[in-house]
Amino acid sequence: xxxxxxxxxLVGSNANVVDSEGNKIGSxxxxxxxxxxxxxxxATVKTGxxxxxxxxxxxxxxxxxGDDVRVPYSKDQIKDAPRxxxxxxxxxxxxxxxxxxxxxxxxxxxSTGDTGTAGYADTDGMAGTxxxxxxxxxxxxxxxxxxxxxxxxxxxxVEQLHVGRETRETGRARLRKYVVTENVTQTVPVxxxxxxxxxxxxxxxxxxxxxxxxxxxxxxxxxxxxxxxPVVEKETVPVERVRLxxxxxxDEETVSEQVRKExxxxxxxxxxxxxxxxxxx
Length: 281
Description:
- By secondary structure, the protein is an alpha+beta fold.
- The strands form two sheets. Strands 1, 2, 3, 4, 5, 6, 7 and 8 form an eight-stranded mixed beta sheet that branches. It has a two-stranded antiparallel ribbon with strand order 9-10.
- It has a domain of 147 residues: Photosynthetic Reaction Center, subunit H, domain 2 (Photosynthetic Reaction Center, Chain H, domain 2).
- About 10% of the residues have low confidence.
């Protein structure tokens, strides 16, 4: 159970509510105190889009875990709890339905000693009760129906939207080097020798060489033929350096969110009153 001294720290803190597996259910909404004992026994958790939905869960076995509130129930069990209007008070019928859903039949009488109902705990840790009537205090004082007597003015508040930025990882890029094979064709001129039979007539200049041998004989002459062939060599040479870099590109995104603000109206049957107020910022 949440200790009484922790109420002031939890109310309005928007602490995370986590289930028995450590999964976040939502943010803490309102705390409800028992009318008889002033002990917190119910709370709401804000779920859904923008936290607009509130679901009740019992605080009997809940405990604080740092800035979180840990409950011994699953996320689905809390989200499937009976829908109850999170006003300033829980009726006995509402509590009975909730106790039955969480399997805590009889827990109300065991924790409070009677069948007392639960009231909402405001930021001062005071328990409001349904049907509380304003006292006949001095002129100009008012009574907040969810809390103690106030001064002669109301405070009107608005929610302001603060949009920040965060950096997160969107992906990764890699350089990968691999080897491919391609055909390269080049034309190279080559030469070769061919046999050519040369004939010359007998003249006075070559007659001596012509008759130097026997008159009739057999002989052979040969020449060696040559040709050129392509010779291929391969050499590895560097051609460029490649690296990965990043550049920052700035875009604009439009953020839409709902904000709430309080409005104050004056009711009465007397003379027409003039609303004097400063310019709203």
